[in-house]
Design a protein that fits this description.
Layout: H1 7-17, H2 26-34, E1 43-47, H3 53-60, E2 66-71, H4 74-86, E3 93-97, E4 110-116, H5 125-135, E5 136-149, H6 156-165, H7 174-184, E6 187-193, H8 195-210, H9 212-221, H10 223-241, E7 245-253
Parallel strand pairs: 1-2, 1-4, 2-3, 4-5
Antiparallel strand pairs: 5-7, 6-7
Helix pairs in contact: 1-9, 2-3, 5-7, 6-10, 8-10, 9-10
Length: 255
């Protein structure tokens, strides 16, 4: 399987979203996902750790004891490992390549399972939530953000946006997530839409891609690639405006 996130795409996403981040909001959005939960000293699994921004923020700003970050792609893991080493966090963050499928950890291993906009790539949410529940300790939390879809039948505009992304999106509805979490055994389940916030953010991101950020990027990754991604944003904003694309915070506790 070829990587969906090669170096030139990582460079573009970091230019838009910040060092180590491959989705919007940076460290502040990680903090909002965690919310009022006390996670200092926690042992954390980060599913789809990407380029390293999430694990680094959990260690530096949230004070967790140790983050095990997993991903399926070499390029993002190499990038993340370099950032972790540069921050002097190799004793608190471990990054592991895994194969798609069951999580390679014993049951009741983690205090927190976290993910930032990565499980959109995992189609079977019921199987995923069962595995998350299995590896959590009793009383542990699943706290994540993900890119959800407003209905089971994507509109032509949504299909055009997903096609423009060119990624293996397996977007689910809030109802599907809630059902998967309930079936796994989670309680205190919450799904909180972030659509209104990201509608504003996406417009600012597009403006920066059309402006100085895009001009600087073009020197690194080529003008054609920048224009291609401007096209992605131009297709994304209408489905954000319609509510069909609904970034969402997810939470659930293992009793």
């Amino acid at each position: 399987m070829s990587d969906h996130y090669p170096d030139h795409l990582i460079a573009l996403l970091e230019a838009v979203w910040g060092e180590g981040f491959m989705s919007p909001g940076g460290p502040a959005e990680v903090g909002r996902v965690i919310g009022g939960h006390e996670i200092r000293g926690a042992k954390v699994l980060d599913i789809g750790c990407g380029a390293g921004g999430g694990p680094i923020t959990l260690a530096e700003a949230q004070g967790v004891a140790y983050v095990t970050g997993i991903d399926v792609e070499d390029a993002v893991l190499e990038h993340a490992r370099a950032l972790v080493a540069a921050r002097g966090l190799t004793d608190r963050i471990g990054l592991v390549k895994v194969a798609p499928g069951p999580l390679p950890f014993p049951g009741e291993t983690f205090d927190l399972v976290f993910s930032k906009d990565s499980i959109v790539h995992i189609r079977d949410k019921h199987a995923l939530m069962a595995e998350v529940f299995r590896v959590l300790k009793p009383g542990g939390w699943f706290l994540a953000s993900d890119w959800l879809i407003g209905s089971d039948s994507p509109s032509p505009a949504m299909q055009a946006y997903i096609a423009a992304e060119g990624l293996d999106f397996g977007m689910a509805t809030p109802a599907e997530y809630r059902d998967a979490m309930q079936a796994a055994g989670f309680t205190a389940i919450e799904t909180r839409s972030r659509n209104e916030w990201y509608r504003r953010e996406a417009r600012d991101e597009l403006a920066r891609l059309r402006g100085v950020v895009g001009r600087v990027l073009a020197e690194k990754v080529g003008e054609a690639f920048v224009q291609q991604n401007i096209g992605v944003w131009e297709r994304m904003i209408p489905v954000l405006d319609s509510g069909e694309h609904c970034p969402t915070h997810l939470a659930g506790q293992k009793p």
